[in-house]
Amino acid sequence: MSAGLARRGCETTRFGQLVIWRCRGCAVLLAPLTVVCSSCGAGTLEPITSAGVGVIVSCRVVDRTPDPVCGAPCPSVIAIVALDEGPWVYSWIDGDVPVPSERPVRVRFRSTQPGERFPVFVPRDSE
Predict the structure, then answer these.
(1) Are strands 88-93 and 116-123 parallel, antiparallel or unpaired?
(2) Taking a C-beta distance cutoff of 8 angstroms, is the pair 116, 10 a contact?
(3) Cβ–Cβ under 8 Å, residues 79 and 91
(4) Does residue 127 surpass a pLDDT of 60?
(5) Distance CA 56, CA 17 (A)
(6) For residues 83 and 53, is the Cβ–Cβ distance under 8 A?
(7) First CA to last CA across the chain, in angstroms?
């Protein structure tokens, strides 16, 4: 992973909020891990706090390695979420996948290491 993406990953979840980026050149809103504007090519992006809500565009259940607690492989749901602001993000869905999958989801943060958080999404009606 490049240093720019690693730094951007840490900035994405600062203060427990999902951060997306606005291009200072053309004002397009971009996904959290973006480092250069895909519209105009500018590298001058400013952070914008996302509301953290959207809908699942696509998802898939995958089996992971055995869970250290229960020992059995634990299925995970990976998804593409279209945020209400426009950008799409790749993430995990916590809980059951909403059916139909177009139901709204909201971002939550899972602690991964001390001081680090990872964004996951949960169905909004399960809050």
Answers:
(1) parallel
(2) yes
(3) yes
(4) no
(5) 19
(6) yes
(7) 34
Backbone CA torsion sign across 9, 14, 18, 23: negative
Burial 52-74 (b: 16+ CB within 10 A, else e): bbbbbeebeeeeeeeeeeeeeee
75 is written with which tokens?
A: 């299925």
Tokens encoding 22: 């606005």
CB atoms inside a 10 Å sphere around CB 107: 21
**127 and 106 in contact (C-beta within 8 Å)?**
yes
pLDDT tens-digit series, residues 5-42: 455 555 655 667 899 999 999 999 999 888 899 999 99
